[in-house]
Design goal:
The structure is a single chain. The chain is built from six helices and five strands. The protein is an alpha+beta fold and 187 residues long. The protein has two domains: 38 residues, no CATH class; 131 residues, GTP cyclohydrolase I, C-terminal domain/NADPH-dependent 7-cyano-7-deazaguanine reductase, N-terminal domain (GTP Cyclohydrolase I, domain 2), CATH 3.30.1130. The chain has a five-stranded mixed sheet. Helix 4 runs antiparallel to helix 5. The radius of gyration is 19 Å and the shape is elongated. The N terminus is likely disordered.
Length: 187
């Protein structure tokens, strides 16, 4: 499942929204210390939501040649995402891998791009894990695949129950690894 790319950012509307937010808290967006804030925040969010525009079908093209079907596992790929409920960041690392099948093998950097494509969107961790697993399964058609995310959520640590430092783990396995996961997915 590949969502359609987000519409291009309306920079003027983004900056106006930030100015309105500042004003809603009684702050003066024209004050010297805040004058450049709307532009910086608009740029920040354009980067933060860039994942909607990544075309995974284009990224996950198999490498040429006959490569040995050995497991490919990348561990501890760092990511930062944004909770769709509070617009608060959550960050952690992803371990993902696959056992090549009929879809072939892709370059290692392409696996990092899969993580980035879904992290750079408004997210919840459970959906992000499912989206990464589905992208591996659908585009690579591997014999086995796995995704393990570990993240700290500021929405849980800084508001509500205010319990910082609690890691959230999400693991999805498919194909041959569903019943016999390799060691990196057992942690």
């Amino acid at each position: 499942m590949n969502p359609q790319p987000a519409a291009p950012q309306d920079r003027a509307a983004s900056e106006a929204a930030v100015r309105a937010l500042l004003q809603s808290f009684g702050l003066d967006p024209a004050a010297p210390e805040l004058a450049d804030t709307p532009g910086r925040v608009a740029e920040f969010w354009a980067e933060r939501l860039a994942g909607y525009a990544i075309d995974l079908a284009a990224e996950l093209k198999p490498l040429p040649g006959d490569l040995a079907p050995v497991p490919v596992i990348l561990e501890r790929i760092p990511f930062v995402s944004t909770c769709e409920h509070h617009l608060a960041p959550f960050e952690g690392h992803a371990t993902l891998g696959y056992l090549p099948g009929e879809g072939g093998t892709v370059g290692l950097s392409k696996l990092v791009r899969v993580v980035q494509a879904y992290a750079w969107r408004l997210q919840v961790q459970e959906r992000m894990a499912r989206q990464i697993a589905d992208a591996l399964r659908d585009h690579l058609r591997p014999a086995a695949w796995g995704v393990h995310l570990v993240a700290m959520h500021t929405c849980m640590g800084h508001r509500g129950v205010k319990t910082p430092g609690v890691p959230v783990r999400t693991t999805l396995l498919g194909g041959a690894w569903e019943s016999q996961p390799p060691p990196p997915f057992l942690r």
